[in-house]
Structures are given as structure tokens and as C-alpha cells.
Amino acid sequence: MTNKFSNQNGRRRFLTSMGLVTTGATLTAATAQAASQSSTDNRFSPAKHPEDSWLDISGVTHRAFVDSATTSGGMTALNYANNILFGHTSGYGGQESDYALVVCFRHQSTPFGYGDGVWAKYGEFLSGFMGLTNTKTNSHFTVNPMNLAGRPDLPSRGNTINSLIERGVSYAICNKATLAMCGRLAQATGGSADEIYEEITSSAIPSSRFVPAGVVATTRAQEYGYSLLYAG
Question: Residue 65: how many CB atoms within 10 A of its CB?
Fold first, then answer.
């Protein structure tokens, strides 16, 4: 014969245990939600500055920043930019316009951001600084070597500043390195560092901008969602 009091006690124990499980699940969910909110609230969000607004390019699906700090790295940076665009279009069926792509010239590669007029005037000094020799003339360069097409002797492999501009690439030039360069040029030529600076900055390569420091632009680009590729 079934004991009705035993059944009632068992039912109470069952309901009590279910209540504990429900309470525990509720507390677990609440704790997880609180932890998630806390994680979101504490997530680092970099400050945005007007000086960096040029990096925030809309209408693209990818952002890449190719950094260079050496002579060979500046040449390789052009190859990398070409390869990124080629790989995206040939391997993914994308368009070159899908990319916001920036090449940075800083430190020893900085003079690649200077126009042909500057190279015509100061090419001997710049070639010496960068360790470059024009093998066709066995002398220094009198134009920006990164704008010479059809030169298999150059590591840029035919990629030029202008050919990449036509494909949507833009350039960042280190202002800090440029100021130092102007000081050296002034000493070498007996000229004025301020006047040389005006010459250089007023005749930079197209689709470029001088940034306070190349290393700052490189780090700020990552804060704007750019993938970083170091060319050397």
C-alpha cells in the first residue's frame, strides 16, 4: 500500500531541488551577463584625432598598411602593395577598389616620398644616404627611382609609385625623418633647412601626405582596423 505522506515528502524534495537548480541557473546567467557587460565596458577604445581622419576610408571591405623603414624595404613595399591587390583580385574575385591600401615611407626609405624635382637637385646626397646607384649611368639618381618603369635592375620589379596610385594606393611620408634630412642637406649644401623643407614638402609624390612620424601613423592605422605588413 502506498504511503501518501511519503509521496508528498518526495514531491516537496523534488520541487525544492528544482527550485535550487532554477535559482542556480538564473544566478549563472546573471553572472555571465554581468561579466560580459564588464568586459565590454572595460574594452580598450583608442582616442580618435582629426589628424588621423584620413585613415578612416569608407566604402571599402579591407584595409592594409605596408610599412617600410629601409631602402630595400621601401622598394619591397611597392611589391607587397601590388601582390595584395593581385592576390585579392585573382584569388578572391574581388576588385582593387575593395582596398584602402597605404604604403609608408619612414626612416631610411623616407626620400622615396620626395618628388622628382627634389631628386634632381639633391639626388647625389639622397642616393648616398640611401645607398643607391643608378646602374644605367653608374652614378646617382636624378629622379625618384621608384617612378622608373621598365627597370628590372631595381627590386621594385617594375611597380612604380604612380602605377600603384592608379590602382588606389596612397602614401604616408615621415615628417620627423624629413626634418632631420633637411638639416643634413642644409649642412651639405650650405642652404637653409627651412627653405629645403618647403621645397620637399611642396613637391612630394602624388596621393601622399606627411605624417608627424611614420611610427605613429603605423600604430594609428592599426587603431583604424588596418592590417599591418612590414616590408623591411
Answer: 24
Q: Tell me if 147 sits within 8 A of 115, measured CB to CB.
A: no
Q: For the chain, which domains are there?
A: 61-230 (3.40.1260.10)
Q: How far, in Å, CA of 100 to CA of 62, rounded?
A: 6
Each residue's pLDDT expressed in tens, for the chain with a length of 232 residues: 444 434 444 444 444 444 444 444 444 454 556 555 555 568 889 999 999 999 999 999 999 999 999 999 999 999 999 999 999 999 999 999 999 999 999 999 999 999 999 999 999 999 999 999 998 899 999 999 999 887 777 767 789 999 999 999 999 999 999 999 999 999 999 999 999 999 999 999 999 999 999 999 999 999 999 999 999 9
Model pTM score: 0.82
